[in-house]
Amino acid sequence: MPKYLDLFAGAGGLSEGFIRAGYEPIAHVEMDAAACYTLRTRTAYHWLKKGNNLAPYTKYLAGDIPRKDFYALVPKKILDSVLNYEISEESLPAIFKDIDSLLGGEKLDLIVGGPPCQAYSIAGRSRSECKMVGDKRNYLYRLYAEFLKKYQPKYFVFENVLGLLSARDEDGSLHFDNMRALFKKCGYATDFRTLNASDYGVLQNRKRIILIGFHGEKADFYPQIPVVKDAHKVGELFCDLPSIKAGEGVITPVKTTHYTGKYLFSAGIKEYDEESVTFHQARPNTAQDLEIYRIVVDTWNKSKTRVSYTDLPERLRTHNNTKSFLDRFKVVAGNLPYAQTVVAHISRDGHYFIHPDIKQNRSITPREAARIQTFPDNYFFESVTGRPSRTLAYKQIGNAVPVCLSYHIAHALLTRFTGGDKNAEESNT
């Protein structure tokens, strides 16, 4: 069972895929406090599941016990494996000390993670007056390299957006070239692929750069990651969820309806039929929002085209920006093989994803977004205060790596450690 460290862990989408493939997390490092609570709760879930004792977790999701009492049921070392730090030169000594304590002298086999993508993303650069040149997030890979030098794992997996390939430093050099040169100085050969999540069991068009490093001089170390062939449609993600309108639904568990399909099970989203889900709560909307939704969904149903912001009647246009981000309204069409990319700013822009059922006439719920990202239905998204927040859930989900994409990367890489894991292969698509 290879041991790994997750840097810039977010809410744990990347990590969940590696756990599913059979890896053991030693620590998660993340700066966002709410995401750290999500990671602690998920870490607690996995510990309780190993002990065949998920009853406390079920009670916690139902709101029957507070988070403090729930955490008290889990060993402190398990919860302390989630390290709430902003990774910086100043924080490195403290982070290394905590990781060393958790390792207890054992060897770290793998490091995974990707720094925040805003500085590399084409969208982020287009909205920045300085095109993100000089932004400190451009250089977080240098800190990633410090972990490689310190722990010298056999492999590392570095994930980021396609914009990484074209992002330039102040001197005009490509950050990606500089990054790979630094990793080489640390003793790692590197190779990369552009992977689309839709090829790996995710009903979403989401392309990412997956850079893998090998400690030493070796050719052809990048694992073969077989494409998953399926004919499922996006509507499969929503078919068993209770029908709700804007402003309706609850964050606490609600039972799903009988499900006769296969995808939700094969993707690891559902564990059993009629399993309850949390965060199936729709945003409240104004009368203007609802009128826009009706126009957008009607247009899609009639012509299979998406409404540009400038296509709306002037009385419905409240934003001054009519030059960019005109595709702010996207119908999550149930009859397509994949949805559009779940974006990080979904927490700020409630109109970005619209449910295809005009009778419901609303944006998608956090649970629906989580399903598009292939998070398990029993995955719970936390806040700092302990009071669940729909906005924070959207943010964590939008920033995450799809779990199924992560699983297929992890499973393929596992052959480099162990020669394959037959049980994991048989239990996942």
Write out key terms for the chains shown.
429 residues, alpha/beta, Rossmann fold, 13 strands, 15 helices, DNA Methylase, Chain A, domain 2, 7-stranded mixed beta sheet, two-stranded antiparallel sheet, globular, 2 domains
Give me the secondary-structure topology.
Blueprint (H helix, E strand, L loop, with lengths): L2 E5 L5 H8 L3 E7 L2 H18 L4 H7 L5 H5 L4 H4 L2 E3 L7 H12 L6 E4 L8 H6 L12 H12 L3 E6 L14 H11 L2 E9 L10 E9 L33 E2 L3 E2 L7 H4 L9 E2 L2 E2 L5 H17 L26 E2 L21 E2 L11 H7 L17 H9 L4 H16 L3 H6 L2
Parallel strand pairs: 1-2, 1-4, 2-3, 4-5, 12-13
Antiparallel strand pairs: 5-7, 6-7, 8-11, 9-10
Helix pairs in contact: 1-14
Question: What is the structure about, briefly put?
Answer:
It contains 15 helices and 13 strands.
